[in-house]
Design brief:
The protein has a single domain, classed as Arginase, Chain A (3-Layer(aba) Sandwich), CATH 3.40.800.10. It is globular. It contains nine helices and ten strands. Helix 2 crosses helix 9 and helix 7 runs parallel beside helix 8. The strands form two sheets. An eight-stranded parallel β-sheet has the order 4-1-5-10-9-6-7-8, sandwiched between helices. It has a two-stranded antiparallel sheet with strand order 2-3. The longest helix has 17 residues. Helix content is 33%, strand content 17%.
C-alpha cells in the first residue's frame, strides 16, 4: 500500500510544517534543540524545554498579524535533538559549535532551543568564524559574568563572560549579579542595562544599538521576563521585562541590524503552567519574523 492511501499525518517539527516548508535545503531558518542542563544550580529541568517548545509550537498560527506575513513560508527546518555530552559543559559547547558551524556556512539563520544558557557560547564561537564583525545582544535577569562557578568556567553562570571573550556583548534586563561580576563589568566597561523601576524599553534599545555591530546574535534567557509572564524558569527573578517590552527591543534591533542567529534558553516546563511553553514558542516564531525585517 502506498502512502497516498494512508490518512494525513501531523509532522512533528516546529510549527508542524509540511515537508515542502521544512526541507533543509530550502529553509531559511534551522531549529536546533539542545536538551542540556548539567550545570543548573537551582531548579533543574531546562533539558525538557526544547521538546516543550516544539510541542507547543504546533498549536501556533502561521500568520503573524504584526508583520503581516507567514514567516514559515521562508522555510523552517527542525533538526533532531542534539545528544548531551557526558564530558561536561565545555564538551557540550564544542558539540553545539560543530553543528552551528555547518549551519552558518550553509547560510542558515540559527534558532537554538535550550537547555541551559551554557550552550550559547558554542553557537557564538561558530558564528563568529563566519561573521568576524559579530556582536551579541544578551538578554538575561542575571549577570552570567563569573569567571568560574561550582568548579567550572563553562557553567551557565559564566556564559556571558565566555561570550564576551569571543566578541562584543551588550546585556539588557539584568536584575541580579554578584560583587565579582559587578567589579568586572565596571572595570571592563561592559554595556549593561539593569532593568529597574522606571527603565524603559527605548532606553534599552538605544544602548543596544549604540554598542552592537551590523551583525548580531541574540541570546535570550527566558528569566529576562518577569515571573508573572514566565514563571517556568530555573532561577526566577522579580521585576523583569514584560512581553511587549521584550518584543519592542527585539524588533528595534532587527530593523537596524542583521540578525544571523538567536537562542531561547532556560525554559523549565515543570516550574510553571503549560502556557509558558507556548509563550516561549511564540517568542521563537516572533524572532524568526523579526529576522526577516529590513535590517536583516
Amino acid at each position: 500500500m502506498g502512502l497516498e492511501f494512508l490518512p494525513p499525518f501531523v509532522p512533528y517539527n516546529f510549527l508542524a510544517l509540511s515537508e515542502e516548508m521544512s526541507a533543509y535545503r530550502s529553509s531559511r531558518f534551522v531549529v536546533l534543540p539542545v536538551p542540556y542542563d548539567s550545570t543548573t544550580s537551582y531548579k533543574a529541568g531546562a533539558r525538557e524545554g526544547p521538546r516543550a517548545i516544539i510541542e507547543a509550537s504546533r498549536q501556533l498560527e502561521d500568520w503573524d498579524h504584526e508583520l503581516q506575513q507567514e514567516t514559515c513560508r521562508m522555510g523552517i527546518h527542525t533538526l533532531p535533538e542534539l545528544e548531551p555530552h557526558a564530558g561536561g559543559p565545555q564538551a557540550m559547547a564544542e558539540r553545539v559549535a560543530q553543528v552551528c558551524d555547518r549551519l552558518a556556512k550553509d547560510g542558515k539563520t540559527l534558532a537554538l532551543l535550550g537547555g541551559e544558557h551554557s550552550v550559547s557560547p558554542g553557537a557564538v564561537r561558530s558564528l563568529k568564524q563566519v561573521y568576524p564583525d559579530l556582536s551579541v545582544l544578551y538578554l538575561d535577569a542575571h549577570g552570567d559574568m563569573r569567571e568560574e562557578y561550582q568548579g567550572t568556567p563553562f557553567s551557565h553562570a559564566c556564559a556571558a563572560r565566555r561570550v564576551r571573550e569571543l566578541c562584543p556583548l551588550v546585556m539588557v534586563g539584568v536584575r541580579s549579579m554578584s560583587s565579582e561580576e559587578w567589579s568586572f563589568v565596571k572595570r571592563e566597561s561592559v554595556p549593561v542595562v539593569f532593568w529597574e523601576r522606571g527603565t524603559s524599553p527605548q532606553e534599552g534599545l538605544d544602548i543596544a544599538l549604540t554598542h552592537l555591530s551590523s551583525r548580531v546574535y541574540i541570546s535570550v534567557d527566558l528569566d529576562v521576563l518577569d515571573p508573572s509572564v514566565m514563571p517556568a524558569v530555573g532561577t526566577p527573578e522579580p521585576g523583569g521585562m514584560g512581553w511587549w517590552d521584550l518584543l519592542f527591543l527585539l524588533r528595534g534591533v532587527a530593523e537596524r541590524k542583521r540578525v544571523v542567529g538567536f537562542d531561547v534558553t532556560e525554559l523549565c516546563p515543570r516550574e510553571g503552567p503549560s502556557s509558558c511553553a507556548y509563550v516561549a514558542a511564540k517568542l521563537v516564531y516572533k524572532m524568526m519574523g523579526y529576522a526577516t525585517l529590513s535590517g536583516s
